[in-house]
Design brief:
Blueprint: E1 12-23, E2 34-49, E3 56-61, E4 66-71, H1 72-76, H2 95-105, H3 115-131, E5 142-148, H4 158-174, H5 189-207, H6 213-220, E6 223-226, E7 233-234, E8 241-247, H7 254-267, H8 269-294, H9 300-323, H10 329-340, E9 344-348, E10 355-360, H11 365-377, E11 381-387, E12 393-394, H12 397-408, H13 473-481
Parallel strand pairs: 3-5
Antiparallel strand pairs: 1-2, 1-12, 2-5, 2-6, 3-4, 6-7, 8-10, 8-11, 9-10
């Protein structure tokens, strides 16, 4: 097996945004509308050709303290007899291929469900599928380097951003898509569609049955209207909303939370259906409000009214989520602290802990400082950012993140002062190294999908069922009538 000629492997550095679910958590499972937007927190990835040593695939993921490689000869054994064309509709990883990758990489079956091992497997599958396609059947010697501003396992789309970066960088390095446009550093629509399709394959490797909304947001950017079983629809106008993200550090199981809502829905359909329907109308109202806020022609009084309505819907949405049983005292604390300073917050994602976001109006710097100080005083992680960022693009973010990491720890490894906080590592300690691993320390942070569009049918744990949001239904009817 020889390496591919260097003229067919071009170095590329890309980044892709995370995502924030604005409305529709859990109700989207029942066919209701959900709105999601891109976050201005990104994952960065670079592919460079290696010309020294034995031809290989080298992975360097400093955030995970991962530095490992496999030879091209080893990985060539994974190529199917009849490879697919990388520009055709991607084919998902089959169980037999998954087993073969585990065998070649040296990962044990006990490790295969680890989110970081799954990320490596996704990388290898996209590598052999895109570079070893039916037109070349050769694998290049490359290094893949990845860093991220997104916390892992917090429901902010870190795995989707990673998968999008992999797909974009591999397709671009392979020359399978046209170069980016010089004015935007982004690809054309056809190329982004192909990137999104391959990223969805990567998400399937990592999470099994994702909805596709996370990778779509990361690929296209902006905001999307999503209904299960239908194509996502981009929102026409997306304002740059200023938000505080709050990680409560409370671990939770998306599977358990989704199953708990389903059990309540089965036992109390006459109670649950109005709540879920209210969430649907709330998403419709939120979409109109975002359009008003994003309109350059809207009068100042229209935007002021839209901001007030947005804040009201955020509060109502949180009450509805508490009512269906996916709240948590830690999230209640976030909302209470926020309300004391005149701002508005709700959970984002599966709930039961995890993350919340706080909407901030422009000019509320004093309130922002007070809220941030109080939340950090309770040992929550807090980041200020915006929603509505552009999608996957070519840039030099990786170099910027690398420089920041070096400046924060010039002499020896320290806890990184960045968006991945090692204090949230659960399970701690080092994993036993597999044959090919040169991993200093696997950060075993919870990495499950926070994609509540997935339908989980396993057992559940009942959380306290509070019908707190029933009083909000008249308000929703009033808003809907306006």
């Amino acid at each position: 097996m020889t390496t591919k000629p260097s003229s067919l492997v071009r170095s590329v550095s890309v980044s892709a945004p995370g995502k924030l679910i604005l409305t529709g958590e859990h109700s989207v499972v029942y066919g209701k509308v959900a709105l999601a937007a891109s976050l201005n927190l990104r994952t960065a990835l670079e592919v460079t050709e290696l010309t020294d040593g034995e031809p290989r695939l080298q992975l360097k993921f400093p955030d995970l303290r991962l530095d490992t490689s496999w030879t091209v000869i080893e990985l060539a054994s994974l190529l199917p007899a009849s490879p697919q064309c990388c520009t055709a509709t991607p084919e998902p990883l089959l169980d037999v291929q998954h087993a073969q990758i585990l065998k070649v990489t040296g990962f044990s079956t006990e490790e295969e469900n680890d989110s970081h091992v799954a990320a490596v497997i996704a990388c290898i599958y996209l590598y052999i599928s895109i570079f070893g396609d039916d037109t070349t059947k050769q694998l290049p010697s490359i290094q893949v380097t990845c860093r991220s501003q997104l916390p892992i396992g917090a429901g902010l789309g870190s795995s989707a951003a990673y998968s999008v970066c992999l797909a974009a960088a591999f397709l671009d390095a392979r020359g399978a898509i046209a170069p980016v446009k010089s004015d935007t550093n982004r690809w054309d629509q056809e190329a982004i569609e192909l990137i999104n399709e391959w990223a969805f394959i990567g998400e399937k490797v990592i999470h099994g049955t994702p909805s596709g909304i996370d990778n779509s947001i990361s690929s296209y950017g902006g905001a999307l209207r999503f209904v299960k079983g239908q194509s996502s629809v981009p929102l026409k106008r997306v304002p740059q909303l200023r938000v505080l993200l709050v990680n409560t550090k409370v671990p939770r199981s998306t599977k358990t939370l989704v199953a708990g809502v389903r059990q309540k829905h089965t036992l109390f359909p006459s109670v649950m259906n109005p709540l879920l329907e209210s969430m649907h109308h709330l998403s419709d109202g939120m979409e109109q409000i975002l359009d008003d806020l994003g309109s350059p022609d809207a009068a100042s009084e229209v935007k002021a009214s839209a901001q007030e309505q947005l804040e009201a819907l955020i509060d109502i949405n949180q009450a509805l989520l508490n009512a269906i049983g996916v709240g948590h005292p830690a999230l209640d604390k976030v909302c209470a602290i926020t309300a004391e300073h005149g701002a508005h917050a709700k959970l984002t994602g599966a709930g039961g802990g995890g993350c919340a976001f706080i909407y901030l109006r422009e000019g509320e710097d004093e309130a922002l400082a007070s809220i941030k100080s109080e939340l950090e005083g309770t040992d929550y992680q807090v980041w200020e950012t915006t929603v509505g960022s552009h999608g996957v693009a070519v840039d030099n973010l990786l170099q910027q993140l690398s420089m920041c990491a070096q400046s924060s720890s010039p002499n020896k490894p320290k806890r990184r002062q960045s968006f991945m906080d090692w204090s949230t590592v659960s399970g701690g300690g080092k994993k036993q190294q597999s044959r090919r691993q040169t991993i200093v320390d696997w950060a075993t942070m919870p990495g499950e999908s926070d994609d509540v569009v997935e339908e989980e049918k396993d057992g559940s744990i009942w959380s306290k069922f509070v019908i707190a949001a029933a009083v909000t239904l008249p308000l929703l009817v009033l808003l809907k009538s306006k």
